[in-house]
Every structure is written in structure tokens, then in C-alpha cells.
Amino acid sequence: MKKIISLGVAGTATAAALLATGSTAHASSWSGGGCRSDTAGWAYIAAGVYLNPCIYMSSTSGGGQTNWNIGGSTASVGPSGLGIDPCIQLLAVSGTTTWQVADGGCGGWQSASNATFSAKLRGLVPGTYVVQTGFWATIDGHYGYYGAAQSPRLTITS
């Protein structure tokens, strides 16, 4: 279920205003979001790897319309000799309970020293969300999934 706003030639200023205010023409609005480093610093995971998960509103345009989506990204810093495969999931939040509502997949093997990955995760649906990130790697001879760092919360209302 995606909210859509129409944009014509005269709609460019309106689109910029919508981005600035966090509102769409359908009265949906959002608050929060951003990157973990904005509020809590980068998350230490293992073997010198730190993650910075982010959640944000993104848009795609085509045919005179803009589709708003929840997007997520992650970045890492760590030892250049370590290869990681960064992954993103979108979790819904209710109080202290979370559950996965979208899987952004994984970004492919990269150096832990500068790995990045982003994904479009879900259309606008009211609720509270976080992006959770982690990575696949072999650390100390053990191949597995490491992480579960979370972004700040993003709340969508209508």
C-alpha cells in the first residue's frame, strides 16, 4: 500500500516543501529516522567492525508521480583485510517488541573498512520502524551472521 503524490512542472517547489516538512499530499507525515551515529554512535559488532544503520524516507519518480518508501542503509568501518556481506532488515516496533516486515537482502562481499549497502524496504504504511543491520563474515574461523545494530525509530502517521 503506497501513498502517491502527483507532481507536474509546477509541483517541483511543492515536492521540495514536502521533503522539508516530511508530509505528502495525502496528509501522511513522519518523524524521527536518521542514522544510529546521530544519537548513539556507531555500533561495535565484532572483530573491529562497527556498523551505522540508517532509516529514511526515499522517493522514486516516474510518469508524473512520486512514490514514497521507507529506505535503509548501513555503512561499516573495520579491518581492511576482513570481507563482509552487509544485510538490512526493516522491523516494525510496538513498545519493546519488534518483528520483521521487510528483508532488504544483502549487498555482496566488500571490505569491512568501507562497506555500504542501501535498499528500498517498504511503501508508506503508518507505524513505527527501525532498520536492523548485520553482516555475514568469517571471524576467528567461524562463518556466521554478526550484528543486529538498529537505527533510530521512524514513525509514520496518517
UniProtKB/TrEMBL annotation:
Domain of life from the UniProt record: Bacteria
Keywords for this protein: Signal
Signal peptide: 1-27
Name listed for the protein in its UniProt record: Uncharacterized protein
Organism: Actinoallomurus vinaceus
